[in-house]
Amino acid sequence: MKAFDLYSFYKEIQSDKILFCYSGPISHSTIEGIGHTLRLDLELGEVDFSTSQSVFSTFIEQMQNILNYSADIITKDSEIEKELRSGVLVIGHENDGFFVYCGNKMLNKDVGKLQAKIDSLTGLDKDQLKALYKEKRKQSPDEGSKGAGLGLIEMARKSGKPLEYVFTAIDGDFTFFSIRVVIEGKK
Amino acid sequence: MENLLIEKGKSSPYIFFDATSGVLTFQGESFPENAAAFYDPVIKWVNEYFASCGETGTTFEFEIIYFNSSTSKIFMSLFSLLDAHSGTGKKIRVNWKATGENETAIECGEEFKEDLENLEFNILVI
Question: B4-125: which CATH topology?
Fold first, then answer.
């Protein structure tokens, strides 16, 4: 990027109706900080409370998925750990609602499992997602995992639309995972 | 038995359990970094409380604006535990409070309630 040329980047963000974007390391305090700012932004935008809750919830589940995933990987390599604990987050307006877009690096070997998990939710209706959520909620958590394994189902429920995702191969070790969740606004 | 007090954090609720009055309060938001670790002392306290007290009646006051999915799992297991205690005759009541605009919190309360058999679970719009 050319020096002092943030204006074109800024204009691009504006014209894409992006409310918020972040790229960098993700820690729990990053999540708390961004979360707080996001809440204020949504309040200023006079978004109705339940839409605002859905956007906030989707943001939290996406970010904590990255954090929990990176924590679950046992590695002595601090470089790999750093790679996995970074991400990109974009929140913006779409039609009457919002989108929450998030990307992070993951290990190639974990792609299949994640893809299967997301695909298993596609096509489920509201009641089926609710039943699945309740069923998983009662199960004991996966051994060695910090998360409850409910994040993706939670996002699908908040969205009401299929979760969109892309896996982009980077190299022999890593794949970039992008997930996009649309939250419809209430009229 | 000693009371339990946990101050409100940026991503964790205010928790106050009064062993004498039998009123156990949760207030705020809950999305801690590690929900299982955060709630571990809380669940331990509840277990000790029911082992030694709780004969005269216990009220859980929940006023949680937002909670993440990991917290949802912990709350469900807590309610299941209370449900089991209620089944053996203990007098336990949960007041799940939410403001009228917080439809999400009200729905979440209903979803907990649907999965419980014996526990008195009241959803109160405040």
Answer: Transcription Regulator spoIIAA (3.30.750)
